[in-house]
Amino acid sequence: MKIINCSIVGLGRIGSTLEDDSLREKPASHAGAISAHPDCRLLSGCDRDKEKCELFEKRWKCHHVFQDFESMMSYEVPDILCIATPPDSHRDYVLKAIDKNIPMVICEKPLTEDLSQAREIIDTIAQSRTTLIVNHERRYSLDYLHCKEIIEKGLYGDLLSLNCKLFIGQNHTVEEMLWEDGTHMIDIMRFLTNEEITLVSVTGDLFKKAGESIIVMKLGSIYAVIDAACNRDHLVFELDLSFSRGMIKIGNGVYEEYKSKTSPFYENFKSLDKKQNQFFPKTNYFGGMFEDAVRSLRSDKINKEPVSTGVDGYCVVKVISDIISNSKNQ
User: Fold this and answer.
1) Right CATH number for 142-280 from 3.30.360.10, 1.20.950.20, 3.30.70.100, 3.40.50.150?
2) CA distances from 136 to 72, 164, 248, 324 (A)
3) Tens-of-pLDDT digits for all 330 residues of the chain?
4) Superfamily assignment of 4-136+286-309 in CATH?
5) pTM of this prediction?
6) What backbone phi and psi angles, to 5 degrees, belong to 156?
C-alpha cells in the first residue's frame, strides 16, 4: 500500500511540541499523529520561526524543514497538509493547498475568525478536488462517541437540556476563549445532538479581562446554557447532559453516568444514582482524527466525507460570530 506523505505548516504547540507534554495522551500533535500512523510518513515541515524549525528537525528527525510555504511545496507536494498556524492565516494556506491540488487538508480550529473568509473557504473547497477536515478533535474521542451512542439509542430517555462550563484560567476575555476552546464546545454540542444552534441570549461582558458570560442557545427543542468565564485560576471544559431518566457528565478528564432509580432519601421519589466503572484512560482523540483523514483520502467519492468537515467548521464560526455580534449590540 502506498505510503501517505504528510507535511505540516506551523511547527508550534499543536503542530509538534505538545507531544513532549508528559501528562497528555499521545498522540497530542499533528507530527505525533503522523509518526504514529503506520501508513504515513512525515515528509516536511514549515515555520517562519527558525528556532521552531530547528527543534522540529531534531525532535522528529525530519530533514526537509523550510521557513516559507512555497519552498516546502517546491520540494514535494504532500498527500496530506496539516495547517497548524494562527487562525488569521488559515484562509491563505487552505486556498494555496487547493491551488496545489493537495488531496487532503487538515486545518486547526477555528477554521477562521472571520465569517466571510470561512464562507469563501467552504465555497472554494466545494468546487475543488481537495477534502478539508477541521480538527474538532472531540468528534473522534471515544468518550464522546460513547455518549453520542447513548443519546441515539435513548438509553436514558430523551435528552432535554445541556448545562456547560467553559473556564480557561485568568487574564483572557470571553471572546478570546470562545475562539479557543469555545470552538470545541460549540462543535461537540452540534455533534452530540445532530442539531443546529440558534442563539437565544448573551449576558455578561465578552470583552473585558477576567470576564464572565452566560450564553443561552437552542438545539432543536433542547435548551443549552454555557457559563463561559475567564476569572478562575483553573481550566474546566464540561457538559452536563440531562435526560428524562438520567444524566451524563462529560469533559476534560471527566466521564460519569447517572441513572434514575428509587430514591434512598425520599419516599415516592426517584434520584440519580451514579454508575460505576465509567472511565476512558485513552480516548484516541488525535489518532482518531488522523485515521479519519487517511480513510477519507483513500475512499471513493461516496464514502469520502470526513467526520469533521469544512462546513462543520463554518457553522462553529457562524455561531461564535453571532454570540459576539449579539453582545456588541446590547
Assistant:
1) 3.30.360.10
2) 26, 17, 21, 21
3) 689 999 999 999 999 999 999 999 999 999 999 999 999 999 999 999 999 999 999 999 999 999 999 999 999 999 999 999 999 999 999 999 999 999 999 999 999 999 999 999 999 999 999 999 999 999 999 999 999 999 999 999 999 999 999 998 888 999 999 999 999 999 999 999 999 999 999 999 999 998 999 999 999 999 999 999 999 999 999 999 999 999 999 999 899 999 999 998 999 999 999 987 677 888 999 999 999 999 999 987 666 799 999 999 999 999 999 999 999 887
4) NAD(P)-binding Rossmann-like Domain (3.40.50.720)
5) 0.95
6) -115, 25
